[in-house]
Design brief:
Elements lengths: L1 H16 L4 H14 L5 H4 L6 H18 L4 H11 L3 H18 L2 H19 L7 H12 L7 H12 L11 H22 L18 E6 L11 H4 L7 E8 L2 E4 H4 L9 E6 L1 H11 L2 E2 L2 E3 L2 E3 L7 E7 L15 H5 L2 E7 L2 E3 L13 E6 L1 H9 L3 E3 L13 H16 L5 H14 L5 H7 L2 H20 L1 H13 L4 H16 L4 H18 L4 H13 L9 H5 L1 H4 L3 H26 L4
Antiparallel strand pairs: 1-4, 1-5, 2-3, 2-4, 6-7, 8-11, 8-12, 9-10, 9-11
């Protein structure tokens, strides 16, 4: 028990802190459990063959195919038409489209697909994206709670029930509470988004120059630069919105903007400017200056500006880029993409880029031609926030993708075969029919999430085998046996919700499920309501950006801070906790 407790504590700290890559933590957890003898090698590796892991992997491919074939395009078109010129109506339409999509698809690709669309609509309506993007994430979370396949957390809880000898959950058994959750959450979002969400400029280049994200870069005035010999005030006036002078570096002398306005630009001057990507591009083209250097893999180089675009790209939470330094990505060698700057939580990083290790939510300022940007976009490692997504879709195959998903749902509902089997057959069918290419299917498999689940499952087994689960169950029963079953249920939900705000929702569900089952059995109660409390408590995580993947995805494009999530998400967490305490015993009796 002591050995397992040490491994468990280390795993929780590493998964929550992301000090090392999730893949590394997963491997160390599995290896440690087997090496120490806490579990047999077969038990330590059982997570990789678990039906929940296999089902979640297959659902990633199903979701990827639906996105790739443009099967959701009609929903997006309907949303645009229904929103009109009303921001509140747009929020309602977003709730409908995102909620319905997330009930049957993995919500991460749904949100990634919609972020550029929402940015474009925000520009058309003259509203800041910060008013819209966090609601998109919250709608995706709420929609995912409505069905068994809507979120990986529900699948994990379902498998925990089956492993304990129960019947598991049907595909729509989550729907009564999930629909109530979605309606309550949607009402809160619609009435609270104006008050609680900031009116802050997006980090996206899609917005007008005076509202877009700004980056700091260095421009060199060569001998043929058009601005050499002209007054600084003339070429960079203080009130210019899209490019602002910070300082001039002339030899060894640094001249700040406030004292540089009356100077004449000389050959060899370096202008340190702050501006939007499109503003910097226009300034370079108009005045013949050059960007001093960018990171081209292992070295800094002079750059060409002809036929190149400057765009922003958000590093996705489970991107293979996370934890790697900019110089080791090989973006120029692989795609012809050069890194100009990195923005993290509103701070600009222009220098020492080569050694900077990326984190989920970082925004990279990139320079490349169209072909390179398209190739980088295809990797799924970043979200290129530049126009509505231009991925090539196979719209002719959309009916096949929709039919396969509908078939998996229908056959699962009729209990023709286990969901894991049907989802694997569905994924294979989509690859065989060309709805999604083999390379795209492999890319759709979210490796960090799958490895986290595969390593968390043996932790749950270890809790039971080591006896730690029994100790915790005995302590909980002894402390709460007199407070009543509803209070115990409510306490489990609250504890799960708190843990999920800082730890992975999947890992939280894996660790909490066996304890919930044990406590329910010890109190003579039905364990299913307690498992539902774990599922909904782990999924409904709104108060932090790290509580759910989609929260982190919208952080950069929306310009959000941690405080924005807490201010907008905590009341929603509390509201849904109260709702769960009242509604779970109604829909799913405790006895």
């Amino acid at each position: 028990m002591l050995l397992f407790s040490i491994i468990l504590a280390a795993a929780v700290v590493l998964f929550a802190s992301r000090w090392i890559a999730i893949e590394a933590t997963a491997a160390l957890v599995v290896g440690s459990l087997a090496l120490t003898g806490v579990l047999s090698p077969a038990e330590a590796l059982s997570g990789f063959a678990n039906p929940a892991t296999i089902t979640i992997g297959a659902m990633f491919i199903l979701s990827g195919a639906l996105i790739r074939t443009g099967a959701l395009e009609f929903l997006v078109v309907g949303m645009k038409a229904g929103a009109g010129q009303s921001v509140t109506r747009l929020v309602l339409m977003l709730g409908l489209v995102v909620g319905v999509s997330s009930a049957f698809l993995n919500n991460t690709p749904v949100v990634v697909m919609l972020v550029p669309v929402v940015l474009s609509l925000a520009k058309q309506l003259g509203v800041k994206p910060s008013k819209l993007l966090l609601p998109v994430s919250y709608f995706a979370i709420l929609g995912g709670t409505c069905t068994l396949i809507g979120t990986s957390t529900n699948l994990i809880v379902d498998q925990a029930a089956r492993d304990a000898g129960g019947a598991g959950f049907s595909i729509f058994e989550f729907a009564p509470l999930g629909i109530c959750y979605f309606l309550l959450g949607s009402v809160f979002i619609v009435f609270a988004y104006r008050k609680f969400l900031p009116d802050r400029a997006s980090l996206s280049v899609m917005l007008p120059a005076d509202r877009g994200a700004t980056f700091v870069t260095e421009l060199v005035c060569m001998g043929d630069a058009a601005l050499v010999g002209r007054a600084v005030r003339e070429v960079l006036p203080p009130n210019q919105p899209d490019v602002r002078l910070i300082e001039i570096v002339r030899g060894e002398q640094v001249i700040f903007a406030v004292t540089a306005m009356d100077l004449v630009v000389e050959r060899g001057d370096s202008l340190i400017v702050e501006g939007t990507p499109q503003g910097i591009t226009r300034f370079i083209e108009a005045h013949g200056v050059k960007i001093a250097s960018v990171v081209e893999d292992e070295k800094r180089v002079e750059v060409r500006t002809m036929d190149l675009s400057i765009v922003e790209a958000v590093v996705l939470p489970d991107s293979p880029f996370v934890g790697r330094s900019v110089s080791t990505l090989g973006l120029n060698r692989l795609y012809g993409v050069k890194v100009m700057a990195v923005q993290r939580h509103g701070l600009q990083h222009r220098y020492h880029l080569r050694g900077m290790r990326l984190k989920g939510g970082d925004v990279m300022l990139l320079q490349s031609d169209r072909r390179g940007l398209d190739a980088l976009r295809e990797t799924g490692a970043v979200m290129v926030v530049e126009g509505v997504d231009r991925l090539v879709v196979q719209t002719a195959k959309a009916p096949i993708a929709i039919g396969v998903l509908a078939g998996v749902i229908a056959l699962t509902t009729l209990n023709v075969a286990p969901l894991a089997v049907l989802s694997v057959i569905g994924a294979g069918t989509l690859i065989a029919t060309g709805c999604i290419r083999r390379r795209e299917a492999i890319a759709a498999l979210d490796a960090p999430v799958l490895l986290l689940i595969a390593s968390s499952i043996p932790l749950g087994v270890g809790m039971e085998k080591s006896g730690l689960a029994n100790v915790i169950i005995g302590s909980v029963v002894g402390a709460l046996s007199d407070v009543g079953p509803v209070a115990v249920l409510s306490g489990f939900y609250l504890l799960t919700s708190v843990f999920s705000s800082f730890l992975s929702n999947n890992a939280t569900a894996v660790l909490m499920a066996p304890i919930a089952i044990g406590v329910a059995n010890a109190l003579g109660l039905d364990s299913r309501p307690f498992l539902l409390a774990i599922a909904f408590g782990a999924s409904a995580s709104f108060a932090t950006p790290v509580g759910y993947q989609t929260n982190l995805i919208v952080m950069g494009p929306g310009g959000y801070t941690f405080g924005d999530y807490f201010r907008f998400g905590l009341p929603l967490n509390v509201l849904l906790w109260i709702a769960a305490t009242m509604l779970i015993p109604v829909f799913y009796p405790l006895h």
